Amino acid sequence: MGFQTISAAIIAKDEAEQLPECLQSLAGWIDEIYLVDTGSRDDTPATARRYGAKVGHFSWNDDFSAARNASIDGYTCDWILIVDADERIAAADTGAVRALADGSGGHCYRFVTRNYTNQAGLAGFQPCAKDDPLVRGFAGWHPSVKVRLFPNHAGARFEGKVHELVNRSLETRGIAALLCDVPIHHYPFAKAPERVRAKQEMYLRLGLAKVADAPDDPNAYAELGNAYLELGDYPGATNAFREALEYAPSNAALLKELGSALYLMQRRDEARRAFELAVKIDPRLADAWRNLGVVHADARQWPQALACFEQALAGDPTWADGSRYIQTARDALRA
To answer: Whole-structure pTM over 0.70, yes or no?
Structure first.
């Protein structure tokens, strides 16, 4: 296709502190930056302009998709890259993103977001090497996967008031989503604690509204469960995951999430049964095997724990702590 241009689309509110580093990470390889401000009371718009970004305004209406769609309208570049103010793309990875844009225009691309956190109980948590400069002092990260890069003028529209997604509108137009191995580095807890809490509470409120709009959508209940988890409301999370399973009783991932919430409530027998059913339905679910192993280890059932940890590492050879968990179980068996 030859050289293609890329626009970065950002929506932001009161992100003057986070924004400079984000924009610096885009400088020199992104052709256009457009920030849609959703009602900042700080210097977010002025900060964006200082870094050469175009700035628009959107009256916040509790709908992330509406704001996202406003942010992608009017672009002239060939591709659109979705980025948030508290996210970064490592300098070493920018060439790989450009190569995607210079390739086929018949695809869009999913990216794995590394959400850095100290909450080791979150699904898919991966511990970080302490000497990794991208870690910023956090214990690890948990993944989320979304389409972030897609061709412009392809009819892309985001859907969902919260945890908004663009892939369906693209896939219905024959633009298939491929997985890109470039990570997006996300630092949601780098803000002041009161701002983190306010955002978590907003996600919960929007999650409740999403469930009210789609009361038979298991994904809406699953998102609500994760919102409760982030607030430390484990009973609320358990109830939400149970509601999700009412509509998708054979969903192994939902059973794993339910098991995690039950475990955090110290209801280990119920957690064990949820994890056992999850791996029975989908034996490839490495996280469920790992969590089941932890439940057995808590009960000092070391043969069962060892078997589960071995299954987890076989299912996910990148599990950084897998060998340590297995060795702990083996040592306990020899003791």
So the answer is: yes
